[in-house]
Design a protein that fits this description.
25% of the residues lie in helices and 26% in strands. It is an alpha+beta fold. Bound molecules: magnesium ion.
């Protein structure tokens, strides 16, 4: 949906808050820390900026409770939507994707970043680099007059020749009053053009890239998505505003 100027002001703040969380949490990610400690910190930090966690309680449906955390955490072969736990302790060499959503005065912020825990393998480093670069390649296409599929195909053309798997079951999305709005922003080419991009649209663009197959499955906790082959996965996300002059990343400090 197109945003008015007063809505954009709130979207900017909701997403500036996300940028602050993702910047500050970097110092807290180290061996020995539990994912629940990260989650508790994030919830308090959101509250200190007058924001609520957008993910907490989200997605309840028949037989499944809403998401219990403020952060979605995803270690190594976990792709997204891992549940923070006191028993999940970060170890040297892990990679951890942190996805955080905010609600500020009724508007949503959403962003994600994958962090290294201490020293990581060259393969993990290369996967993270490809995913982060793919995000920026996609953002560059978030221009008025382009189609949603221009973002998708830019990401696909960047990632696929590098031999990685692009997750298909989860996608980017419009964002505003709702966390997930139209349009869906695929990270791969599906043959559809998708809608035309217009000024004052806000999109969350978020490639999820696997070291092996693109296929994923959901664990019995009904939330945690993992790679089917156990390969590593990376995830980066920015919320972007389409302006007359091109894309503006809102999840920057
Ligand atoms: Mg998102």
């Amino acid at each position: 949906m197109l945003k008015t100027n007063s809505e954009l002001k709130l979207m900017r703040e909701a997403n500036r808050i996300i940028a602050i969380i993702l910047t500050e949490i970097a110092d807290k990610i180290k061996p020995g820390v539990s994912t629940l400690e990260l989650d508790r910190w994030a919830e308090q930090r959101l509250a200190s900026m007058n924001a609520k966690p957008a993910f907490k309680g989200y997605g309840a449906r028949n037989g499944r409770n809403g998401f219990p955390g403020s952060l979605c955490v995803a270690i190594n072969e976990e792709v997204v939507h891992g549940i923070p736990s006191k028993d999940r302790i970060l170890e040297e060499g892990d990679i951890i994707g942190i996805d955080v959503g905010s609600i500020y005065k009724g508007y949503h912020g959403d962003g994600a970043y994958t962090y290294a825990v201490g020293e990581i393998s060259p393969a993990a480093r290369a996967l993270m680099k490809c995913c982060e670069e793919a995000l920026y390649v996609g953002i560059a296409q978030a221009r008025k007059g382009n189609r949603v599929s221009d973002i998708s195909s830019a990401i696909d053309h960047y990632v696929t020749p590098r031999g990685y798997g692009i997750v298909r079951d989860l996608t980017g999305h419009g964002i505003g009053r709702d966390l997930h709005e139209e349009p869906q922003v695929l990270n791969y080419i599906d043959g559809h053009k998708g809608q035309k991009l217009k000024e004052n649209m806000t999109l969350a663009i978020e490639p999820m890239i696997n070291g092996g197959t693109y296929k994923v499955r959901t664990l019995s906790d009904q939330w945690t998505v993992v790679t089917e082959d156990g390969s590593l996965s990376a995830h980066y996300e920015h919320t972007v505003l389409i302006t007359a002059d091109g894309p503006e990343i809102l999840t920057h400090v």
